[in-house]
């Protein structure tokens, strides 16, 4: 597959302070790649290096087959960029801003600009100083998308937008990809990346903790499991759960007030549910709850732990 972006050993220092410590990643053409990470992780710095707004201290970058240092305006025209913060002059209108950016990114079809403004519910004739944070964000998005670029680099695209407009932006991202484009977006909200991206990199303290597909992240995430069983001994239930790969944090207790001796078990599961289902089919289940995988928790663990400890398959009878 064609690569839209290839980054190898990217380092960036501000003075003596290194904020990117050798990033390596590739983005396949025609896909959406999301980078998530807490504030200060280095998402914006990475994007600015890709656009040659700032220069890397070390490493190599290829954007649409070119080195951004030498791509100049011709390469810039093939890219749509939404900066984290759009700096706007006060005494102007959205339409003037669009005209200004068209001169850099053009050619731009004015009917397409009007259609995008319509979709985003943005009044281009308002003074920019009167625009709310959300409306400024819409203007930033409009100028990024308006020339139908091959590559979109979007720094926190839905920040400050209401949920309906967020959905519209996700639709615009999908359409860009359907037309053959590539999207690199950043977010510190997992649900956004989960909805919009095919692959995700988790960035922490200037290093990539992991790169994975959203599906694989979901598979690795923990689910909470709770079930009740009648006519079984606690140690048999424990032994059964111990045979299931990915089951951990097992606790088995008597159901209070149940004279028939029912048991309730709780545990966590990561990975495939099939082996669990096979084992549970052997016992007389009276209730079963398996939660949705908690991706948020999985990612928070990756934010805070250098390497997450493997789940221990320990049985506890309480
Ligand atoms: N021009 C600069 N001079 C000095 N340090 C900088 C500069 N730009 C960024 N940094 C530092 O680099 C680190 C990464 O910042 P960056 O803005 O890339 O993070 P981010 O992941 O985009 O965070 P956020 O979600 O808050 O936007 C931070 O510690 C920041 O203070």
UniProtKB/TrEMBL annotation:
Transmembrane segments: none annotated. It comes from the Bacteria. Its main location: membrane. Keywords: Antibiotic resistance, ATP-binding, Nucleotide-binding, Transport. Pfam families: ABC_tran. InterPro entries: AAA+_ATPase, ABC_transporter-like_ATP-bd, ABC_transporter-like_CS, ABC_transporter_ATP-binding, P-loop_NTPase. One of its GO terms (biological process) is response to antibiotic. It is found in: Cell membrane. One of its GO terms (cellular component) is plasma membrane. It is a peripheral membrane protein. GO terms for molecular function: ATP binding; ATP hydrolysis activity. SUPFAM superfamilies: P-loop containing nucleoside triphosphate hydrolases. Residues 5-230 form the ABC transporter domain. Belongs to the ABC transporter superfamily. This is ABC transporter ATP-binding protein. It comes from Paenarthrobacter ureafaciens. The lineage of its organism: Bacteria, Bacillati, Actinomycetota, Actinomycetes, Micrococcales.
């Amino acid at each position: 597959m064609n690569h839209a972006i290839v980054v190898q050993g990217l380092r960036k220092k501000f003075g003596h302070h290194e904020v990117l410590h050798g990033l390596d990643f590739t983005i396949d053409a025609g896909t959406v790649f999301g980078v998530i990470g807490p504030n200060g992780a280095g998402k914006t710095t990475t994007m600015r290096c890709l656009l040659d707004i700032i220069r890397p201290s070390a490493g190599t970058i290829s954007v649409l087959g070119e080195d951004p240092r030498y791509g100049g305006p011709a390469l810039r025209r093939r890219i749509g960029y939404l900066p984290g913060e759009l700096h706007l002059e006060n005494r102007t209108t959205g339409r003037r801003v669009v005209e200004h950016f068209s001169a850099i990114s053009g050619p731009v079809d004015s009917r397409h600009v009007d259609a995008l403004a319509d979709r985003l519910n943005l009044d281009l004739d308002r003074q920019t100083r009167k625009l709310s944070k959300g409306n400024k964000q819409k203007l930033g998005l409009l100028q990024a998308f308006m020339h139908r670029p091959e590559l979109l680099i979007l720094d926190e695209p839905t920040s400050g937008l209401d949920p309906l407009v967020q959905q519209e932006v996700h639709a615009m991202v999908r359409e860009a990809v359907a037309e053959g484009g590539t999207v690199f977006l950043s977010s510190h909200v997992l649900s956004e990346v989960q909805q919009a991206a095919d692959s995700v990199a988790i960035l922490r303290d200037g290093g990539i903790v992991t790169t994975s597909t959203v599906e694989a992240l979901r598979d690795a995430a923990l689910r909470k499991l709770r079930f009740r069983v009648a006519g079984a001994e606690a140690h048999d239930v424990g032994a059964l759960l111990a045979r299931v790969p990915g089951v951990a944090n097992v606790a088995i207790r008597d159901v209070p007030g149940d004279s028939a001796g029912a048991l309730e078990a709780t545990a966590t599961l990561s990975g495939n549910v099939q082996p669990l289902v096979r084992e549970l089919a052997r016992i007389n289940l009276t209730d079963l709850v398996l939660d949705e995988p908690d991706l948020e928790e999985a990612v928070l663990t990756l934010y805070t732990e250098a390497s997450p400890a493997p789940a221990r398959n320990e049985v506890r009878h309480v």
